[in-house]
């Protein structure tokens, strides 16, 4: 009897399912992607018990022809490609023809489908890969998959699943990402009978981000748009004030497909490096469009990995696009009220309906006189920009009322009229009749000026200009570390150590880039003992280090003598610092460029900067501020910490309960 046997189809399908269908979220992913490929504009996903016992996915796509039904659950049967050459030009999300057969092998499936041309639909039942029946049925056009008892016939696989709540979390993560990448489709996600996600499908990516992440992130969004020879980029990034300790906020999509790729996340993080702290990661929602012939998505059955034909070109394009977007932006961190204070304000009791009507009639006339025509015009533009999905969800959390930008803008004009009115009542009274939506419907537009800034952006831009320096009113030094400056209706706090560090950093980098440096001889020289890898990295980058002002000389064996260093670094260079620079050259890996070497060298400016708890005179502080404000990016130190934060007069008065 031979030792080698040919496995039966059922066993083969269960083995294949282990690659494609790892957990319930993989089932949802494959079926939702099929719905998108079928041209659906509305997709509903419903799960119970984390998708382990029940998954239902309904779409209004093209449906499946009756003649195709015998092939739907066969391995490697697909409508997406015909030949191997098609793999070079993949435009659909699915193409391998493995998903449906793998799902059918480990679950009980009910498929209901109908094309627009058919008079009736088809109901097809399959249990563990075995057909149980097919019949004609009345149903709307589109396709519905019902998946029950996932892994019922493979208990070894089922026991490795996590809790139902955790598995549901994986599904929700996928639904949120697919909604961001396909804002033209209306997605609805129902978990155990509760709506968890519902997007409008109005093709506005910012609406989706607002719906998923809320106002805090949406108000910090900056639009990104760039075109290259082989790539195009669009979407949003958040200002550096929004970050977290892992990469969960990094959403990027290639041709509508969510992927994970080190080239992309390294480019993103390198662009944000001057703006955020170490081990913090930015928020992104980026759409990359790449010629399908330049990428290979046929790398892994889950299709989460891709390979690029020109990875270095993509890295450079993405890095420069994000860097250019961030440069020149107003990135001062503004301090707002805490959520607890906002909730406390909202909890005030609303007046009775007749009292609300009376105040509306009384207050509107007064406010019309108080608010200038330009203010009214701006209010109308805010309301006009309200996203449609919010208008469909009027019962959204009332905390949005107090957080709205309109509430903040209208305060100064109306404070004496409606000082103690609750947020909802005040908004309804102040809006003109032609503007019929309450303020909770307003989501500020993200353009060149990100949402939530409004008037303050002009004040901050003025504060950061040389012309405004003479108008700064320096109040004093706080804790011998922070300088308080009054300008306009804002209070600015500057961290003297971070500010001086940034000034030194920019000065050194500028001299190195423009080759304005001079070398300072070391007496005696510093002797470095290098291993083989460190020696190789030094030799590889020796020309650039020499141009930067360093002078290295072989000293015999594994040792090198450092005889000169850049003049600006003379007092900072020690043995450990030089070893740290060379270690950095060996660690960078993929994009070991002069830019990285510059960062390694210039980061030593921290050691030379004036320290916190060091008392400065007003003249020294003013000189430091003038130097700081002449920089391209004065907002963050080289380590990503904020240099300047601000707080408006409005927020200060709220803290002191002068505004209630």
Automatic annotation (TrEMBL):
SMART domains: DNA_mis_repair, MutL_C
Residues of the DNA mismatch repair protein S5 domain: 209-327
Keyword check for Amino-acid biosynthesis: no
Signal peptide segment: none
UniProt-listed InterPro entries: DNA_mismatch_repair_CS, DNA_mismatch_repair_MutL, DNA_mismatch_S5_2-like, HATPase_C_sf, MutL/Mlh/PMS, MutL/Mlh/Pms-like, MutL_C, MutL_C_dimsub
Keyword list, A-Z: DNA damage, DNA repair
One Pfam assignment: MutL_C
GO cellular component, one term: mismatch repair complex
Organism superkingdom: Bacteria
Keyword Transmembrane: no
GO function terms (MF aspect): ATP binding; ATP hydrolysis activity; ATP-dependent DNA damage sensor activity; mismatched DNA binding
Record-stated family: Belongs to the DNA mismatch repair MutL/HexB family.
HAMAP family, per the entry: DNA_mis_repair
Record protein name field: DNA mismatch repair protein MutL
């Amino acid at each position: 009897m031979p030792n080698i046997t040919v496995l039966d189809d059922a066993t083969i399908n269960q083995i294949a399912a282990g690659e494609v269908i790892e957990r319930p979220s993989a089932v949802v992913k494959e079926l939702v992607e099929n719905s998108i490929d079928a041209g659906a504009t509305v997709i509903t996903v419903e799960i119970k018990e984390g998708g382990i016992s029940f998954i239902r996915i309904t779409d209004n796509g093209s449906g499946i022809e009756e003649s195709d039904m015998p092939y739907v659950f066969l391995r490697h049967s697909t409508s997406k490609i015909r030949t191997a050459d098609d793999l070079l030009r993949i435009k659909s999300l699915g193409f391998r023809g493995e998903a449906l057969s793998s799902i059918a092998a480990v679950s009980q499936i009910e498929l209901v489908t109908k094309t627009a041309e058919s008079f009736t639909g088809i109901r097809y039942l399959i249990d563990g890969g075995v057909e149980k029946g097919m019949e004609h049925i009345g149903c709307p056009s589109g396709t519905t998959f019902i998946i029950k008892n996932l892994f019922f016939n493979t208990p070894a696989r089922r026991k490795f699943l996590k809790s139902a709540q955790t598995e549901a979390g994986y599904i929700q993560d996928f639904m949120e990402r697919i909604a961001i990448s396909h804002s033209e489709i209306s997605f609805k996600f129902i978990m155990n009978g509760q709506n968890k996600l519902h997007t409008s499908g109005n093709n506005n990516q910012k609406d989706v981000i607002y719906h998923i992440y809320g106002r805090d992130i949406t108000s910090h969004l900056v639009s990104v748009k760039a075109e290259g020879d082989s790539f195009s980029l669009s979407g949003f990034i958040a200002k550096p004030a929004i970050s977290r300790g892992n990469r969960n906020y990094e959403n990027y999509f290639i041709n509508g497909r969510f992927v994970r790729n080190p080239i992309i996340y390294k480019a993103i993080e390198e662009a944000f490096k001057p703006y955020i702290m170490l081990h913090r990661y930015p928020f992104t929602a980026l759409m990359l469009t790449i010629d399908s012939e330049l990428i290979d998505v046929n790398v892994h059955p889950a299709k989460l990995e891709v390979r690029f034909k020109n990875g270095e070109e993509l890295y450079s394009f993405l890095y420069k696009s994000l860097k250019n977007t961030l440069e020149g932006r107003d990135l001062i961190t503004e301090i707002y009220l805490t959520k607890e204070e906002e909730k406390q304000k909202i909890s005030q009791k609303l007046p009775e309906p007749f009292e609300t009507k009376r105040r509306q009639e009384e207050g509107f006339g007064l406010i019309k006189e108080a608010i200038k025509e330009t203010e009214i015009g701006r209010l109308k533009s805010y309301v006009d920009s309200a996203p449609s999905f919010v208008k469909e969800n009027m019962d959204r959390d009332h905390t949005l009322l107090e957080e709205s930008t309109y509430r903040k803008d209208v305060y100064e004009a109306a404070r004496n009229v409606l000082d103690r009115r609750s947020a909802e009542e005040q908004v309804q009274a102040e809006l003109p009749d032609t503007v019929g939506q309450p303020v909770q419907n307003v989501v500020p537009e993200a353009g060149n000026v990100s949402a939530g800034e409004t008037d303050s952006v002009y004040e901050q831009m003025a504060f950061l200009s040389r012309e405004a320096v003479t108008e700064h009113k320096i109040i004093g030094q706080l804790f011998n570390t922070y300088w308080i400056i009054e300008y306009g209706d804002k209070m600015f706090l500057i961290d003297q150590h971070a500010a001086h560090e940034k000034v030194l950093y920019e000065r050194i980098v500028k001299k190195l880039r423009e080759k304005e440096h001079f070398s300072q001889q070391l007496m005696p020289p510093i002797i470095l003992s290098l291993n083989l890898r460190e020696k190789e990295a030094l030799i590889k980058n020796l020309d650039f280090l020499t141009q930067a002002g360093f002078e290295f000389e072989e000293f015999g064996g594994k040792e090198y003598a450092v005889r000169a260093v850049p003049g600006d670094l003379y007092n900072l260079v020690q043995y450990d610092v030089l070893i740290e620079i060379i270690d950095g050259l060996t660690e960078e890996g993929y994009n070991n460029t002069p830019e990285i070497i510059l960062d390694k060298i210039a980061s030593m400016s921290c050691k030379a900067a004036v320290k916190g708890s060091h008392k400065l005179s007003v003249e020294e502080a003013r000189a430091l501020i003038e130097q700081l404000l002449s920089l391209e990016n004065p907002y963050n130190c080289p380590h990503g910490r904020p240099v300047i934060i601000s707080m408006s007069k409005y927020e200060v008065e709220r803290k002191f309960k002068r505004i209630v």
